[in-house]
Structures are given as structure tokens and as C-alpha cells.
Design a protein that fits this description.
251 residues; mainly alpha; globular
Length: 251
């Protein structure tokens, strides 16, 4: 890798690293942060989502193994989430791959902004641990929105499980581990629909940064208070998504 290539890819490495640290600690945000950046620089929505999910196939594998080693995974909850999530992911990837990019972009950015608002709202609420009841439908919806929006599995699924009273540590570890199977399924679907156009320099940078950061998430999930990080992610997503939306509608 020559100097000019390194300079071009370095910002994406930093974004991938930061996004994965937050994702590993909170069980959310890698896809939404990365996808927002790719949309911001002009990558078509379907290609951006495909690229992010290709990267996440690797980062979630490392993150999931790390969470399992730190005993952060509720395996019963895992199996209730993973199959519906994969089904929803296939549907979302297929729908996005067959929608005109310029038509889809404003809706996806609005969706990402809404996720940011939801995270910001959630940061001020403390969970009251108990077993969640609505799991399989949540996995289905989370998988669909994740593929269609280029991110959101963690934001949708983790936050809603916490609303139901699930334990934060095991929710984060379980959602991260299930995400590997989701992202692998979504990536395969995108490849059948789009080919290999999602493999760009930005994708490579996100992959490098994300894989380097992935092992730290399981440790941070135990030690770092979630509310401040969740609030910060919410603010960043709202700001970047609304700016992208303003540009997309002709601002």
C-alpha cells in the first residue's frame, strides 16, 4: 500500500475503529455510523449497505467470539433472535437491491436519523432487568431494517430488548454474536443481487479499523457506562443523517 492509498484509506480505518468500539460496548452503531458516512460521500444506498454488511461479517465474527469468551451471551435468547433476523435480512437486502438509489436515499437517511433520536431518548432510561417477551418479531423487523437501512440491527434489537427489561451485558453480547449470522446472510444476498461492486477503498478501511477494534467491545461492555456513549451516538447519527437528508432533497 503506497502513501497516497494509505492517506485515502486512513479516515475510514479510524471511523471503522471508533464505530466498532462503540458497537461492541453498546451492541449497536457500527452499521449506522459506517453507512451514514458512505451515503454522505455519495455511495449508492444498496452498495453502501452491501459494503457495510461485508465488513460486519468479519467484525461481528471477532466480536462474537470475544463476547462468548467473556461469557456475555445468553444462548437461549441468541437462538430466538438469529433465525428471524436472517429471514428479515434476506427480505430487506432483496428489497433495497431492487429500489432506485436516489428514491431510497432520503428514506434511509430519515430512518437513520430516527434511530439516532431513539438512542438519545434511551440514554436517559435505566433498565429494570427481566426476561424479554417479544423477541422473534423483533429479530425479523430488526433484520429487515438493518439490510434496508445499511445498519440498525443493534439499535433496533438491543434498545427494544432493554426496553423490555433485558440485562444490558447479556443483551449486548447476544445481539453482537447473532449479528454475525445476520450480516453473513445479508452480504450473500447483496452479492447475488449486485455482484462485487461494494468492495471499495472505503470498505477496506472500515474492515481494517473494525477488526482491530472488535476484541475490545466485550471488555467495554462490562466496564463502561452505556448511557453517555448511547447519547453521543444518538447526537452523531441525528446530525450526520439530517445533513445527508438535507443534501439528498436538494439543499
Amino acid at each position: 500500500m503506497d502513501l497516497s492509498t494509505l492517506e485515502a484509506v486512513a479516515p475510514f480505518i479510524l471511523v471503522g475503529f471508533a464505530a466498532q468500539v462503540v458497537d461492541g460496548a453498546l451492541g449497536m452503531a457500527f452499521g449506522t455510523i459506517s453507512n451514514t458516512m458512505l451515503l454522505w460521500i455519495g455511495v449508492p444506498p444498496a452498495a453502501a449497505s452491501a459494503g457495510v454488511h461485508t465488513v460486519e461479517t468479519f467484525t461481528t465474527a471477532v466480536s462474537g467470539i470475544s463476547h462468548a469468551l467473556h461469557k456475555n451471551v445468553d444462548w437461549r435468547l441468541f437462538f430466538r433472535l438469529v433465525i428471524p433476523g436472517m429471514i428479515g435480512g434476506i427480505l430487506g437486502a432483496y428489497v433495497l437491491s431492487n429500489v432506485d438509489a436516489e428514491t431510497a436515499k432520503p428514506f434511509i437517511l430519515a430512518y437513520l436519523a430516527a434511530i439516532g433520536g431513539y438512542l438519545l431518548w434511551r440514554s436517559g432510561h435505566k433498565p429494570n432487568p427481566k426476561k424479554p417477551r417479544v423477541v422473534e418479531p423483533l429479530g425479523l423487523v430488526g433484520g429487515f431494517l438493518d439490510a434496508a437501512g445499511g445498519g440498525g440491527w443493534g439499535a433496533v434489537v438491543t434498545s427494544n430488548l432493554l426496553v423490555q427489561g433485558a440485562h444490558p451485558r447479556f443483551t449486548i453480547g447476544t445481539v453482537n454474536t447473532a449479528e454475525f449470522f445476520l450480516t453473513a446472510t445479508i452480504s450473500a444476498t447483496f452479492i447475488t443481487q449486485l455482484g462485487w461492486e461494494a468492495f471499495t477503498l472505503a470498505t477496506v478501511g472500515l474492515l481494517i479499523g473494525g477488526v482491530i477494534a472488535a476484541p475490545f467491545g466485550a471488555i467495554l461492555a462490562k466496564r463502561v457506562p452505556a448511557p453517555p456513549l448511547m447519547a453521543l451516538v444518538g447526537v452523531i447519527l441525528i446530525a450526520t443523517s439530517l445533513f445527508g437528508l438535507w443534501r439528498a432533497i436538494g439543499g
